[in-house]
Amino acid sequence: MNESVESIRAADAIAIERTLAGDRDAFRVLVERHSGTIFRLAYRLTGNHHDAEEIVQEAFLRAYQKLEQFASQANFATWVYRIAANYTIDRMRQRKQEDARRQAPSAEMTDDVEQDPLRQIPDAMPSPERLTQSLELRKQMENALNSLTPAERIAFVMRHCDGCGIEEIAAALKSNPGAAKNTVFRAVHKLRQVLQPQFAPRATARAMGTES
Amino acid sequence: MKHLSEEQLIAYQDGESSGRDAAAAHINSCAECQAEVNRIAEMLAAYQALPVPDPGEEYGRRVWQQIAPRLAEKRSRWWQVFLEPRRLTAAGLVVALFLIAFLVGRVSKRVDHGDAALTAEQVRQRVLLLAVGEHLGRSEMVLMEIANAEPEGASVKQVNLSSQRRRAEELLDENRLYRQTALQEGDTGIANVLDELERVLLDVAHSPGNVTPAQFKSIRQRIDDDGLLFKVRVLTQEIERRENTEKRGPAESGSAKVERNNQA
Q1: CB-based burial of residue A50 (10 Å sphere; 0-12 exposed, 13-18 middle, 19+ buried)?
Q2: How far apart are CA B196 and CA B230, in angstroms?
Q3: Quick check: pTM over 0.95?
Q4: pLDDT value at A107 more than 70
Q5: Which of B48, B144, B148, B188 is the most exposed, fewest CB within 10 Å of its CB?
Q6: Nearest-CA distance from A113 to chain B in Å?
């Protein structure tokens, strides 16, 4: 039997209230109910099982610590999702900085896709399902995701994998809706560029809205 | 013909409403832009279809085991102590009202009538009914499966209850929360049934995944002896009735609660 959204929120409300009243074990219900969703988000953001598990744990630890601040929120699932996204973006940025410090400047990631091996993808146009069945292409798609900045990746995953609204994405990015929308667009644009020739625009000039 | 920019095409594909009609008119008449929209859609669909590993049914439990030792006990708020025993009706108001108002959508109207305490109690009742109603439905499924399971033949050495055991473990935590909340709300009718349910769920949750026919019989006997399935169904119906009553007219008198408690 699937629980309705309303009843899940009601169940969450009771668990939150009891946790705040000092019943630590009541938080367990929230953890067990929402861990899977947060894991899926974290995995999509990191592409790594181990990192995803760490993010899930940290998100719930932070949610527990901040639970007193939850009063004006309507939906625990959305709230903990946002905590996970916030934490992930900080973590990804920190990792990028650490990587950058370790690597020689010439090896830093740039927007230059001309030398990217992903450009060698065979020109075929199978269905999305068949595409993702192709291990090679899947790897290329994951690599393309890795080429995005942390903010772009989070914005893209939230928008196009989890169907989040722009306001929600803006909140996760600690930004404004206009900037969040632009980040989503930039992410899609970059992915198309990197995943040439399957998904890229036919003419680079198209981005400028030129005549054919 | 001037084609749409990539930004316009991506925005169109994303459901952007601004300038949508003009974009749609162009795309419908321009094969090249139509093809571009399709390519964008294909890429997005491919990303949506990228598999995410299933962390497993026990994942939430594992996460809890990993983080539980790191969670400091929260002190209950000092003013709750002074508001016993009706503490949660008043003390939980701060948290629960904002949270639950979204669900119920009736709070502001009734607060306007100047009866905030009653409103808070009604809101809390509604939330409890919603949560318990759903919980009873899932519990009934587990009890039904056990009640209807038949060890086949005398040669059967073990009965596999691993699925029911796992779900009983999940239900136990919620059951405890709802039972305690019902008690605090003074809803002994719900609390009593949940108390009986909790004992059976505990038996199932603590049983090995594969039980002997004798163990299985003992668990089922307990369900039968307590008339638990019947009580769960009656309470489910009662909750549905109360939910319907509240939808028609939310103000519920104190005498109605006394009546419910007497029935229990």
Answers
A1: exposed
A2: 12
A3: no
A4: no
A5: B148
A6: 18
Contact B182, B131 (CB under 8 A): no
Cα angle A92, A94, A97 (rounded to 5 degrees) comes to: 110
Tokens representing B52 are 């995410």
Q: Which class for B264: exposed (0-12), middle (13-18), buried (19 or more C-beta within 10 A)?
A: middle
Per-residue pLDDT of chain B (264 residues; tens, 9 = 90+): 688 898 899 999 888 888 888 889 999 999 999 999 999 999 999 999 999 999 998 899 999 999 999 998 776 554 443 344 333 433 344 445 445 555 555 444 444 444 445 567 777 788 889 899 999 999 999 999 998 887 666 566 788 888 999 999 989 999 999 999 999 888 999 999 999 999 999 999 998 888 888 888 888 888 888 889 999 999 999 999 988 887 666 554 444 454 455 444
Peptide bond into A197 cis (omega under 30): yes
Q: State the residue for tokens 């108001």.
A: B93
Of B257, B246, B254, which Cα lies nearest the Cα of B110? B246
Instruction: Write out residues 50-109 of B within 8 Å (CB-CB) of A.
Output: 50-53, 55, 59-61, 63-64, 66-68, 70-71, 73-77, 80, 87-88, 91-92, 94-96, 98-100, 102-103
Which tokens in the block code for residue A201?
């625009």
A106 Cα to chain B: minimum distance (Å): 30
DSSP3 helix / strand / coil % (chain A, rounded to 5): 75, 0, 25
What is the residue type of B220? R
CA distance B122 to B119: 5
The helix (run of H) or strand (run of E) holding residue B210 is strand B210-211
Nearest by Cα to A81 from A184, A185, A164: A164
The verdict on a CB contact (< 8 Å) between A57 and B63 is yes
What ipTM does the predicted assembly reach?
Answer: 0.78
